[in-house]
Protein backbone atom coordinates (compact mmCIF):
# COMPACT_ATOMS: atom_id res chain seq x y z
CA UNK A 1 0.00 0.00 0.00
CA UNK A 2 1.28 3.45 -0.76
CA UNK A 3 0.20 6.54 1.15
CA UNK A 4 0.49 10.03 -0.25
CA UNK A 5 1.97 12.66 2.06
CA UNK A 6 0.19 16.00 2.06
CA UNK A 7 1.68 19.25 3.35
CA UNK A 8 -0.74 21.96 4.46
CA UNK A 9 1.36 25.11 4.60
CA UNK A 10 -0.28 27.50 7.07
CA UNK A 11 2.31 30.17 6.36
CA UNK A 12 2.50 33.56 4.65
CA UNK A 13 4.01 33.61 1.14
CA UNK A 14 4.71 29.86 0.95
CA UNK A 15 6.46 30.06 -2.46
CA UNK A 16 9.97 29.82 -1.08
CA UNK A 17 9.10 26.59 0.77
CA UNK A 18 7.32 24.65 -1.97
CA UNK A 19 10.28 22.74 -3.38
CA UNK A 20 11.44 21.68 0.08
CA UNK A 21 8.15 19.91 0.75
CA UNK A 22 7.95 18.33 -2.68
CA UNK A 23 11.60 17.19 -2.46
CA UNK A 24 10.79 15.71 0.95
CA UNK A 25 8.19 13.48 -0.73
CA UNK A 26 4.86 15.32 -0.49
CA UNK A 27 2.58 14.49 -3.38
CA UNK A 28 0.09 17.20 -2.48
CA UNK A 29 0.92 20.69 -1.25
CA UNK A 30 -1.85 22.92 0.13
CA UNK A 31 -1.46 26.68 0.39
CA UNK A 32 -3.81 29.26 1.87
CA UNK A 33 -5.69 31.63 -0.43
CA UNK A 34 -5.22 34.40 2.16
CA UNK A 35 -1.46 33.89 2.40
CA UNK A 36 -0.45 34.10 -1.28
CA UNK A 37 0.13 37.41 -3.04
CA UNK A 38 -0.39 35.69 -6.40
CA UNK A 39 -2.35 32.53 -5.70
CA UNK A 40 -2.53 31.57 -9.37
CA UNK A 41 1.27 31.71 -9.67
CA UNK A 42 1.81 29.73 -6.47
CA UNK A 43 -0.58 26.94 -7.50
CA UNK A 44 1.08 26.74 -10.91
CA UNK A 45 4.46 26.53 -9.17
CA UNK A 46 3.28 23.56 -7.06
CA UNK A 47 2.15 21.75 -10.19
CA UNK A 48 5.35 22.73 -11.97
CA UNK A 49 7.27 20.89 -9.25
CA UNK A 50 5.31 17.75 -10.07
CA UNK A 51 2.98 17.75 -7.07
CA UNK A 52 -0.79 18.09 -6.85
CA UNK A 53 -1.96 21.50 -5.69
CA UNK A 54 -4.44 22.28 -2.94
CA UNK A 55 -5.91 25.55 -1.75
CA UNK A 56 -7.35 26.24 1.71
CA UNK A 57 -9.79 28.95 2.73
CA UNK A 58 -10.15 30.20 6.29
CA UNK A 59 -13.60 30.53 7.86
CA UNK A 60 -13.92 34.23 6.96
CA UNK A 61 -12.73 33.82 3.38
CA UNK A 62 -15.44 33.52 0.71
CA UNK A 63 -15.14 30.89 -2.00
CA UNK A 64 -14.96 33.56 -4.69
CA UNK A 65 -11.29 33.87 -3.63
CA UNK A 66 -10.60 30.53 -5.36
CA UNK A 67 -13.24 30.17 -8.05
CA UNK A 68 -11.04 31.54 -10.85
CA UNK A 69 -8.09 29.26 -10.08
CA UNK A 70 -9.92 25.93 -9.95
CA UNK A 71 -8.22 24.84 -13.17
CA UNK A 72 -5.00 24.63 -11.12
CA UNK A 73 -6.52 22.95 -8.07
CA UNK A 74 -6.67 19.25 -7.16
CA UNK A 75 -8.06 19.79 -3.67
CA UNK A 76 -10.11 22.52 -2.02
CA UNK A 77 -9.89 22.71 1.77
CA UNK A 78 -12.61 24.48 3.74
CA UNK A 79 -11.22 25.26 7.21
CA UNK A 80 -13.67 24.43 9.98
CA UNK A 81 -11.58 26.27 12.60
CA UNK A 82 -9.34 29.29 12.36
CA UNK A 83 -5.73 28.18 11.80
CA UNK A 84 -3.46 28.17 14.82
CA UNK A 85 -3.63 25.03 16.90
CA UNK A 86 -5.39 21.72 17.40
CA UNK A 87 -8.24 21.05 19.79
CA UNK A 88 -10.50 23.91 18.70
CA UNK A 89 -14.25 23.58 18.39
CA UNK A 90 -15.65 22.61 14.98
CA UNK A 91 -17.49 25.50 13.34
CA UNK A 92 -20.77 23.96 12.17
CA UNK A 93 -21.53 27.37 10.64
CA UNK A 94 -19.11 26.35 7.86
CA UNK A 95 -21.42 23.58 6.61
CA UNK A 96 -23.30 25.85 4.16
CA UNK A 97 -19.90 26.88 2.82
CA UNK A 98 -18.88 23.23 2.42
CA UNK A 99 -22.09 22.66 0.45
CA UNK A 100 -21.36 25.76 -1.62
CA UNK A 101 -17.85 24.43 -2.32
CA UNK A 102 -19.36 21.09 -3.40
CA UNK A 103 -21.61 22.96 -5.89
CA UNK A 104 -18.72 25.07 -7.13
CA UNK A 105 -16.68 21.93 -7.81
CA UNK A 106 -19.61 20.23 -9.55
CA UNK A 107 -20.14 23.28 -11.74
CA UNK A 108 -16.44 23.37 -12.64
CA UNK A 109 -16.72 19.83 -14.02
CA UNK A 110 -13.28 19.08 -12.55
CA UNK A 111 -12.04 16.27 -10.33
CA UNK A 112 -11.34 18.23 -7.14
CA UNK A 113 -11.32 16.70 -3.67
CA UNK A 114 -13.14 18.61 -0.94
CA UNK A 115 -11.39 18.53 2.42
CA UNK A 116 -12.29 19.90 5.85
CA UNK A 117 -9.87 20.54 8.71
CA UNK A 118 -10.53 21.49 12.31
CA UNK A 119 -12.55 19.94 15.11
CA UNK A 120 -13.33 16.80 13.11
CA UNK A 121 -14.36 13.89 15.32
CA UNK A 122 -17.18 11.44 16.02
CA UNK A 123 -19.67 14.21 16.77
CA UNK A 124 -18.89 16.43 13.80
CA UNK A 125 -17.72 14.35 10.84
CA UNK A 126 -21.25 13.43 9.73
CA UNK A 127 -22.27 17.09 9.36
CA UNK A 128 -19.23 17.83 7.22
CA UNK A 129 -19.75 14.68 5.12
CA UNK A 130 -23.43 15.43 4.66
CA UNK A 131 -22.52 18.90 3.43
CA UNK A 132 -20.25 17.33 0.81
CA UNK A 133 -16.74 16.95 2.25
CA UNK A 134 -14.91 13.85 1.05
CA UNK A 135 -11.55 14.19 2.82
CA UNK A 136 -11.21 14.80 6.54
CA UNK A 137 -8.25 16.04 8.55
CA UNK A 138 -8.52 15.08 12.22
CA UNK A 139 -5.97 15.76 14.95
CA UNK A 140 -7.16 15.51 18.54
CA UNK A 141 -9.87 12.95 17.80
CA UNK A 142 -7.23 10.52 16.51
CA UNK A 143 -4.28 11.19 18.77
CA UNK A 144 -6.05 11.57 22.10
CA UNK A 145 -5.54 7.86 22.66
CA UNK A 146 -2.81 6.64 20.36
CA UNK A 147 -3.45 2.99 21.23
CA UNK A 148 -6.91 3.31 19.70
CA UNK A 149 -5.82 5.18 16.57
CA UNK A 150 -6.82 2.48 14.06
CA UNK A 151 -10.19 1.97 15.75
CA UNK A 152 -10.91 5.71 15.71
CA UNK A 153 -9.93 6.04 12.04
CA UNK A 154 -12.27 3.16 11.18
CA UNK A 155 -15.12 4.70 13.16
CA UNK A 156 -14.68 8.14 11.58
CA UNK A 157 -14.60 6.54 8.13
CA UNK A 158 -17.78 4.62 8.94
CA UNK A 159 -19.61 7.72 10.18
CA UNK A 160 -18.53 9.75 7.13
CA UNK A 161 -19.56 7.04 4.68
CA UNK A 162 -22.94 6.60 6.40
CA UNK A 163 -23.62 10.37 6.31
CA UNK A 164 -22.56 10.67 2.67
CA UNK A 165 -24.83 7.76 1.72
CA UNK A 166 -27.71 9.39 3.59
CA UNK A 167 -27.09 12.69 1.80
CA UNK A 168 -27.06 10.87 -1.54
CA UNK A 169 -30.42 9.26 -0.73
CA UNK A 170 -31.86 12.71 0.11
CA UNK A 171 -30.53 14.02 -3.19
CA UNK A 172 -32.10 11.25 -5.25
CA UNK A 173 -35.39 11.56 -3.36
CA UNK A 174 -35.42 8.14 -1.68
CA UNK A 175 -35.13 9.68 1.80
CA UNK A 176 -36.55 12.87 3.33
CA UNK A 177 -34.06 15.41 4.71
CA UNK A 178 -35.73 15.47 8.15
CA UNK A 179 -35.35 11.68 8.45
CA UNK A 180 -31.69 11.71 7.43
CA UNK A 181 -29.86 13.55 10.25
O1 LIG B 1 -3.68 22.97 12.21
C1 LIG B 1 -4.85 23.01 12.42
C2 LIG B 1 -5.56 24.20 12.92
O2 LIG B 1 -4.63 25.23 13.07
C3 LIG B 1 -5.64 21.79 12.23
O3 LIG B 1 -5.02 20.94 11.28
C4 LIG B 1 -5.76 21.11 13.55
O4 LIG B 1 -4.49 20.82 14.04
C5 LIG B 1 -6.57 19.88 13.50
O5 LIG B 1 -6.65 19.42 14.80
P1 LIG B 1 -8.04 19.15 15.51
O6 LIG B 1 -8.89 20.39 15.33
O7 LIG B 1 -8.61 17.96 14.81
O8 LIG B 1 -7.65 18.91 16.93
So what's the CATH class? Alpha Beta
Strand content: 15-25%
Count of strand segments: 6
| Rounded average pLDDT | 95
Low-confidence parts, pLDDT < 50 over ≥5 residues?
A: none
The rounded Rg comes to 16 Å
Q: Could you state the CATH homologous superfamily?
A: Aldolase class I
Distance between the termini: 34 Å
Sheet with the most strands?
6 strands, parallel
List SSEs in N-to-C order.
EHEHEEHEHEHHH
Number of domains: 1
Q: At the third CATH level, what is the topology name?
A: TIM Barrel
The helicity comes to 25-40%
Structural class: alpha/beta
Organism: Carbonactinospora thermoautotrophica
Protein name: Ribulose-phosphate 3-epimerase
Enzyme class: isomerase
EC number: 5.1.3.1
Write a short abstract of this structure:
Helices cover 38% and strands 17% of the residues. The protein has 181 residues and is α/β, with parallel strands linked by helices.
Describe the fold and architecture.
This protein is α/β, with parallel strands linked by helices. It has a single domain, classed as TIM Barrel (Alpha-Beta Barrel). The chain has 7 helices and 6 strands; from the N terminus they run βαβαββαβαβααα. It has helices spanning 18-23, 39-48, 95-108, 125-131, 140-143, 149-171, 177-180, and strands spanning 5-9, 26-32, 52-57, 75-79, 113-117, 135-137. It has a 6-stranded parallel sheet. α4 (125-131) links the parallel β5 (113-117) and β6. It starts with a strand and ends with a helix. The mean pLDDT is 95. Bound molecules: 5-O-phosphono-D-xylulose. 5-O-phosphono-D-xylulose is lined by residues 81, 83-88, 117-120, 137-141.
Amino acid sequence: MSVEFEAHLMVEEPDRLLSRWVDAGCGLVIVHAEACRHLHRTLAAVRGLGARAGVAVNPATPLCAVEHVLDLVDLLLVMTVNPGFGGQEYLASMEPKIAEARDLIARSGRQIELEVDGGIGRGTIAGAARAGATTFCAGSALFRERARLAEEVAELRRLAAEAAAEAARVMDGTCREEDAA
